[in-house]
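Quick log. Single chain, no ligands specified.
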Amino acid sequence: MRLIVENRFALFGLVVLSLAALLGAALLTRPLTAEVGVSEAGAVRPDRAVRVCPQPHEDSDADSAAAAFAPRVSRDDEGELWAVPVSGTPDGEDGADADEDTRATPGPGADHLDEDDLIGEQITEPGLVWSTGTDEADDPTAVHAAGDLASGLEVSQVTSSDDEATEVVCAQPSIGTWFALPGGDDPDGVDLDGLTAHLANPEDFRATVNVDIYTADGPSHSPESRGIPLGPGESTELDLTESVHSTSAAGVHVRTSTGRVAASLLAEHSSGGTDWVNPTTGPAENAVVPGVPGGEGVRRLLLAAPGDEPVTAQVHVLTSERAEEDGENGGDGAGTPGDPYTVTVPPAASAWLSLESALAEEPGTAVIEADGEVVAGAVAETDGGSETAYSAAADPLSRPLDTMAVLPDVPREAETEVVVGATERDTEIMATPVGDEGDQGDAVKLRIPAGTTQVLGTDTEDVAWEPPPGIGSGDGYAVRLDLVDEDSGPVHVARVLRTDDGIGAAPVRPAPVEVPLPVVRDSSVALTP
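-> predicted structure:
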């Protein structure tokens, strides 16, 4: 102690020695393996999920059914899956006069609900197909899943008859959802007579919704599309027809300032066709739109650029045969002869491109490469526009986590085509039919050469699957799609439905059983759902 007092450097040395000892102790006692999600990226199975299927179109006399499927990963998997209505906004201002006990919100599970409150049956095991008729529904249907039934969940609603077919991918609540579609004023008659946004809040906290529209001439909105309040378990509809009546193309962004909302768009064409517009991926410089249906009629790509600068997009179209490289046309071996097509999108506006000559009546995949962020979708009109179908940009099946996708409902009265586009490398996918009790049929495999679009389904020529054993002649079933090889992917997938005179399309999204956890370090970080 006397040495420390008499030597002015001794105290400094003691402090350094103490800090070194503290650091050494921390290093020696730290975990050998960093905790998942703290200092290393990891993955986790979701244990809660919800999807919302909109109320079927009132003027349709076709049958509608919602279906859900979550795969079994291990023998001990268990959980709950149930469905409830999402009631309309009450008459009281901002829902203040409503009895919140009567509204369907997630809660801890289905046990707190009466049997009369449920839509369809409740299931407690994954690997089974849940389905219920919705053609008599007066409200949107919220499908909730808890435990192991929340991982790999996919839900869709199919409406079909001899002269109509449409599929809507039931929406996950989000802070922002994008759509791309035609407007109400088109020189070739591909225009809308009505556009309605179906908004639902299936969660237990309030949401405030705004709708932005990007027309060919720039942004458009109305006072009615701003600050729309939705209480827990409430839903509403918003007429957007006036906002798109004077444009040939439109991008629609449904966003929230508080809470989250599940959004769906219903488009009524002036030529008679009515269809759900499925959501597209968010703004990005690269996008892929799978499942542009083959056959006669109009085929159109729709783009919207929400930024403040003009965007130039190069569009490649992949069909069944890989195009040869063509130096004169600037091709890179991906798409049809004459690629790439060029589309210029003004700032905060939208544009479109005809695809009929590029597709030559084949099913195809549109690949967009732009110098700015865009959202993309596609529309098909058949039989003079009496039937329409919408596909949209979708994330691919890819490794390591997004290796599986699900068709929750394959209706027996319609023909199903799974349209698959491989943008980078040769890929194989496997399709396995699954019955409502979990019985699996024979799996079939499809090879997709790089730079092409291939098709498998119920009645396709080259690769077709058979229904699983043990189901009735009119019963639907699910189909699970999996990447086959370790080096397979990415592939972009969509489903096309066909009846006698009807056609519908919808992108097929990855349904991962695990989702990535973020890397978290010693810093201030906020996560937004």
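The two ends are 58 Å apart (CA to CA).
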